[in-house]
Amino acid sequence: MEISYLSDGAVPAVYLRGMDQDGGNRTEIGELGEFGLIDRIASQFQQPHAAVVRGIGDDAAVLQTGGDHYLLWSTDTLAEGIHFDLAYMPLRHLGFKAVASNVSDICAMNGKATAITVGLGLSNRFSVEAVDELYSGIRLACDRYGIALVGGDTTASPKGLVIHIGIVGQVAPDRIAYRSGAKPGDILCVSGDLGAAYLGLQILEREKRIFLQHPEMQPDLSKFPYLIERQLKPEARVKTVEALEKAGVVPSSMIDISDGLSSEVFHLHRHSGVDFSVFEEKLPLDQSTYDQALAFNLDPGTCALNGGEDYELLFTVRQEDWEKVVDLEGITAIGYATEAGMGMQYISKAGNVHPLMALGWQHGRSQD
Ligand code: ADP
Ligand code: MG
């Protein structure tokens, strides 16, 4: 389709005013939701290039570029006021977290990250020293994960800070893990522990509120080192990918937990065409997560299910591989896959069966 501004008569401002060019009603993005919008975009691009092994829909795109490995390619944008608050997020930590969350998407394909690009939108609120701080965190993450910074883009931004990271990695074709490979009977596993980053965020938000009301009071975060660390400086689970390789196991499906466990279990369900049963008593929670959830009057299991930003890996393994996985450090079986139609189930500690709900992490949407 050729685009001609004049003959199409598409005055861009009309989209903002509430009408499309045919005079129809405007659809709010919130009506479709993030995933509905992505599906709509994906449905408009159905003739992929021959090199595309897997396009939109997984944690990274998969390309065949001629070598013996697949190329993995993913991208993520962090916007101030939506994904981070500089009132309590130090720029160095932000730089680290932006890279780690991208590395996590490569891990979720069972791959190894190679290089990143960094696009920055900077308002005049930011100094050269502030940019140095941000890049010191980016550098730390590059060193930690053995990846190179190979380019990027720098632009002015009318308001706030926007960080856009592109990442490439690679994986051998016989080791790749998609969201779509789970089969009934597979065991659902998770790395590390859940819910801590969410509680870290609740503590930081609370301290910010107190500080705004009483600027003379200095926040004391020293009582919650683990929860704060998990929010401000999460790690990508590169070690889990390495451990699985050493154990000779390829997960039958995998995704990383950015939006919350339940939301990611639903992605595996949707892509694999199986249902899942998840057991509350199996959910891995750090003691400090458990204690702090109760202190906030929150249900610890709900924090683990819906908290988000854990950047752990959620994956399935075939039953015959379970023996090789059971003793790996930091891996917990939390449920299993069942035939489609059995229902998405959450089994409470008391043994009651509830429907699993995918509340997920709702990022605030800014109002222009
Ligand atoms: P993740 O949480 O793993 O980063 P997302 O939920 O952001 O994944 O994205 C899911 C899939 O949709 C990915 O394959 C991503 O590349 C694709 N996607 C997201 N936004 C867009 C967009 N605006 N245009 C095309 N594809 C998109
Ligand atoms: Mg992901």
Describe the structure.
The chain is an alpha+beta fold and 368 residues long. The protein folds into two domains: 29-175, PurM-like, N-terminal domain (60s Ribosomal Protein L30, Chain: A, 2-Layer Sandwich), CATH 3.30.1330; 187-355, PurM-like C-terminal domain (Phosphoribosyl-aminoimidazole Synthetase, Chain A, domain 2). It is 34% helix and 22% strand. The chain has twelve helices and 13 strands. It has helices at 5-8, 13-17, 29-43, 91-107, 128-145, 196-213, 225-232, 238-246, 261-272, 287-295, 300-306, 322-325, and strands at residues 52-54, 61-64, 70-79, 112-122, 148-156, 161-171, 187-191, 253-256, 275-279, 313-317, 331-338, 345-347, 353-355. Strands 8-10-7-11-9-12-13 form a seven-stranded mixed sheet, sandwiched between helices. Strand 2 (61-64) and strand 3 form a beta hairpin. Helix 4 (91-107) packs parallel to helix 5. The longest helix is centred in the middle third of the chain and has 18 residues, at 128-145. The two termini are 31 Å apart. Residues 360-368 have low confidence and may be disordered. The structure holds adenosine-5'-diphosphate (ADP) and magnesium ion. Residues 59, 105, 108, 255-256, 258 line the site of magnesium ion.
